[in-house]
Amino acid sequence: MAARQGGAGWREHIVIYAALAANIGIAIAKFIAASITGSSSMLTEGFHSVVDSGNQVLLLYGEHRAKKAPDRRHPFGYGRELYFWSFIVAILIFAAGAAFSMYEGYMHIVEPEELTSATVNYVVLGVAFVLEGASWVTAVREFSKAKGDVGWWQAVRESKDPSGFVVLFEDSAALSGLIVAALGVYLSHALNMPKIDGMASVVIGLILALVATLLAREAKGLLIGEPADPKAIVAIREIVAGHRGITAVNHVRTIHTSPESVFVAISADFDDDLPMGEAESMIETIEQALRDRMPHLSSIYIRPEKAEDTMEHEDAGDGLRGSGPALASGG
């Protein structure tokens, strides 16, 4: 699937900007409604929108930091900053969103507060649903473009750009929370049981906790390091194996250093009769062929290594070390 979720300039971050604009307006409206009606679920939803707004700011900051050029301290660039801030977003959803929602709900269950007006809540919830729905549609549309024919859950698991699916998850949780809040307000008034409003807050907190857990798992995988798409790895093997003088491709190992950059380490068995000078020229040719086919390969490392030596080191759990000289290229 595509590495990015949009085009250039502001369009590149349209999903995040749409979510940020919606959440700021929604948060203000929810707090006003909560102060008028005393609704626990509405207050919880207000803080939920504040947390989401902060999350969008962090994602934009992560996107900005990820574009910094490589330097001596970070020779592979700063691309993983986006993964780090995505992980922080997941933690904030859990700590500031889910925890507060469940705490607020519990307090209103223990000490229920009588609701004064349901009409204000319904109006605000309706407006919030429209704004949040518009943001959700934008996120779905952009992520759908990026995923292609891949299934939705598989696309999330395989995506190397967390910005799109983080906002998609947030908006989905927000819409679910709005529905729960509306049910809580309605049942509290219809049954004259203010505790139900607190229960709705707890349910919203559980929804946020679930979303935060899923996002944290995906962000952790990206932060630790995930390989390139299997099709790209197959293509790399084919390009290297297609050069005369290469008798076997032992392994191809890749890792994303950012959504758009991949480091690749290749172990190949060279013809024993190939002089060192010709081997060096061949490696340069292979590197150029790889970059022409896959421009996102930021750094390429090629090691001449006997197939049997590779098998020995693979058995030892270290397939990147070998006895042959290393011929490498940086991005």
From TrEMBL:
Bias (Basic and acidic residues) occurs at 308-318
- Give me the Gene Ontology terms describing cellular component: membrane
Q: For the Cation efflux protein transmembrane domain, which residue ranges apply?
A: 17-223
| Domain Cation efflux protein cytoplasmic stretches | 230-305
Annotated region Disordered: the residues are: 308-331
Question: InterPro entries from the xrefs?
Answer: Cation_efflux, Cation_efflux_CTD, Cation_efflux_CTD_sf, Cation_efflux_TM, Cation_efflux_TMD_sf, SLC30A9
Question: Where is this chain primarily localised?
Answer: membrane
The alphabetized list of GO BP terms reads:
zinc ion transport
Q: Where, per UniProt, does this protein localize?
A: Membrane
Q: Which UniProt keywords apply?
A: Membrane, Transmembrane, Transmembrane helix, Transport
Q: Tell me where on the tree of life, at the top rank, the source sits.
A: Bacteria
Annotated TM spans: 14-33, 82-103, 123-144, 165-187, 199-216
Q: Which family does it belong to?
A: Belongs to the cation diffusion facilitator (CDF) transporter (TC 2.A.4) family.
- Any idea what this protein is called? Cation transporter
Species:
Stakelama marina
Top-down, what is the taxonomic lineage of the species of origin?
Answer: Bacteria, Pseudomonadati, Pseudomonadota, Alphaproteobacteria, Sphingomonadales
